[in-house]
């Protein structure tokens, strides 16, 4: 099935203009540069719709599956409750809000102090509809990555000259 990325770009642009948003305003809300919005609106081909495209569609009030519908040559559907009026919590970019709102299982969260008043928040989610085996594999991968993340943060905080060695797990 061919995907009509140019058609999607034109439809998103028209929807953005219909609600009175500029590219700059939308880019700021999505947490991306204006050139990313321009690329979407020009119909730059992708292997699959990006998270930013999905957040863009939500922002202009489209239903969740509308991107796929437009790519297949059909018309977008409006969401039952337009999300244009919704403010992202704590000023989060809409692409992050979109990720947090998906149906995937919440696997873990962690707050990593970075020194001073800075901290990093990590939210680990599984794929919507993941099997118990997939969730188990994802948790194992996260546990390994989590340890390496903590080692890297500790290295940066201590100002060491060389990063910690990564031990291979057999």
């Amino acid at each position: 099935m061919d995907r009509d990325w140019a058609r999607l770009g034109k439809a998103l642009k028209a929807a953005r203009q219909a609600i009175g948003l500029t590219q700059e305003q939308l880019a700021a809300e999505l947490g991306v540069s204006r050139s990313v919005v321009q690329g979407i609106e020009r119909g730059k081909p992708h292997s699959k719709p990006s998270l930013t495209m999905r957040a863009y569609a939500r922002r202009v009030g489209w239903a969740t599956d509308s991107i796929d519908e437009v790519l297949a040559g059909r018309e977008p559907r409006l969401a039952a409750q337009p999300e244009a009026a919704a403010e992202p919590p704590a000023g989060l970019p809409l692409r992050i809000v979109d990720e947090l709102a998906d149906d995937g299982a919440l696997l873990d969260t962690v707050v990593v102090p970075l020194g001073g008043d800075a901290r990093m928040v990590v939210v680990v989610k599984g794929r919507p509809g993941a099997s118990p085996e997939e969730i188990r594999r994802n948790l194992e991968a996260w546990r390994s990555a989590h340890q390496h993340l903590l080692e890297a943060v500790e290295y940066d905080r201590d100002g060491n000259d060389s990063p910690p060695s990564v031990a291979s797990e057999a």
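DSSP finds seven helices and two strands in the chain. The beta strands are 106-115, 118-125.
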